[in-house]
Design brief:
Serine Threonine Protein Phosphatase 5, Tetratricopeptide repeat; 3 domains; four-stranded parallel beta sheet; alpha/beta; single chain; globular
């Protein structure tokens, strides 16, 4: 090989890598293929072609190229790690775990490899081994905010709340938002005594989180704290029923003076809540008598067991594809005699027959509460509607994916957060048919 060709290969490979780093994957592939034409054994070009294929979702091609690059240089930990991620994407879990383990042994100070191992194990339901790997990664890279947040979620899922709440506080830095810099003219509340003082709680995440954690408002009020709550306006008709609430505001509303402030989801940790001390008393939210009466009248034509059904969550939720249930799978439930089905979907969308679709008539969440109070049972996926049923003290059968949100813990059929809940869990990923079968069995023996 001439010096000119050697220099061209080195320059072309550098340009291809730079194109990949800029996200120009088509250009990077073109340059890498040109390199292989000139130098068929260029394992760097093979590796780069594999990375491009992986980024573009051509997983089998990625495995082929990255595997070939590893064969030519099996002591390269970075290449083994990339090969493992391609194997994961292609569905070869065992191979991915083996490759990542080899990569970790070659690169003992690489936190990302252990994070990838932990994520893969957690996807398989092995939270204990995943937790150990998250801890290893955190020792290597203690200031990785996203890692620390995920460590917190893993701890919470395993019921290790004390440490889990503290790690979950890293979410603020992971989201490039420092809790102390929130634009309120009051210090952050860290859990200190506030008797006789005013505390502003503000919502930071979804509607379901707000419904779930507003339970702490009455608890704080009983301790002599004057509690203000800033929450989405759509929830105000519902949240106004909270005992001890001194003021309810929407984002942007003028606020009265307050002594301290905190995000609502931080309250359990700052109050020292552990698994054994979860305040599970319900109901803590209530529908108005007028709304209850209005929906009683609307449902009077239904003579069987009135069952509310929520099969879809928020489509904008990052995990909606796993949480929501395909409507066509519900058909076997409708063959059970003595049941009247009511669709409780505040969002517009198709409603499978023979459900009475109450969705278009639901004015707001206070109205939804009025409807639910007239139900004998609510069946729902992990959604705001399910949280509302729990907060109202309505019996609810909750349908959970194989990898549940942290708050539902693992392997339990009950929830310490909502005593009226029964949990129906997938036993393997996407096993909604198995969940429906369990529902059929439970409904067949349900009192008429």
């Amino acid at each position: 090989m001439t010096d000119i060709l050697t220099a061209w290969i080195a320059s072309s490979f550098s340009e291809a890598v730079q194109a990949f780093n800029r996200g120009e994957h088509d250009l990077a592939q073109k340059q890498a293929r040109a390199l292989l034409a000139a130098s068929p054994n260029h394992d760097g070009a093979m590796h780069l072609l594999g990375l491009c294929a992986l980024r573009q979702g051509r997983n089998d091609e990625a495995v082929a190229w990255l595997g070939e690059a590893v064969l030519r240089n099996p002591a390269d930990g970075d290449r083994l790690a990339a090969f493992g991620m391609a194997q994961k994407a292609a569905g070869n879990v065992a191979g991915a775990l083996q490759s990542l383990e080899q990569a970790a042994s070659l690169l003992p100070h690489n936190a990302q490899i252990r994070i990838n191992q932990a994520n893969l194990l957690q996807d398989q339901g092995d939270f204990d081994k995943a937790l150990d790997l998250y801890r290893q990664a955190a020792r290597i890279d203690p200031n990785n905010a996203l890692l620390r947040y995920n460590l917190g979620l893993s701890l919470l899922t395993l019921g290790q709340f004390e440490e889990g709440w503290a790690e979950a506080e890293w979410r603020w830095k992971a989201a490039c938002l420092d809790l102390e810099r929130v634009d309120f003219n009051a210090p952050a509340w860290k859990g200190e005594e506030l008797q006789g003082k005013t505390l502003l709680l503000w919502t930071e995440q979804g509607l379901g989180d707000t419904i779930m954690f507003c339970r702490y408002v009455p608890i704080l009020a009983e301790r002599g704290v004057r509690v203000l709550l800033q929450a989405p306006k759509s929830l105000h008709p519902l949240l106004s029923s909270l005992q001890g609430l001194a003021g309810l505001f929407a984002e942007g509303d003028p606020l009265p003076p307050f002594d301290a402030q905190a995000p609502l989801l931080a309250v359990p940790g700052r109050m020292g809540t552990i698994l054994q001390t979860i305040p599970g008393q319900t109901p803590y939210l209530h529908a108005t008598t007028e709304r209850i009466a209005a929906w009683r009248d609307k449902l009077k034509h239904l003579k069987g067991v009135k069952i509310g059904l929520g099969w879809r969550g928020n489509p904008a939720h990052a995990n909606d594809a796993n949480r929501s249930l395909p409507a066509e799978l519900l058909a076997p439930l409708f063959k059970i005699n003595g049941m009247d089905w009511i669709g409780v979907q505040p969002d517009p969308g198709p409603c499978p027959p023979p459900i009475f679709n109450a969705g278009p008539e639901l004015v707001d969440w206070g109205d939804t509460a009025g409807l639910m109070t007239n139900l004998d049972l609510m069946i729902a996926v992990d959604s705001s509607a399910a949280h509302l049923a729990g907060a109202l003290g309505i019996p609810c059968w909750l349908l959970l994916p194989y990898l549940p949100d942290w708050r539902w813990l693992l392997k339990r059929q009950d929830s310490p957060w909502y005593p009226t809940f029964s949990l129906f869990r997938q036993q393997s990923p996407q096993d909604w048919p198995g969940v429906i079968l369990k529902l059929q069995e439970a409904l067949s023996s349900h009192p008429r």
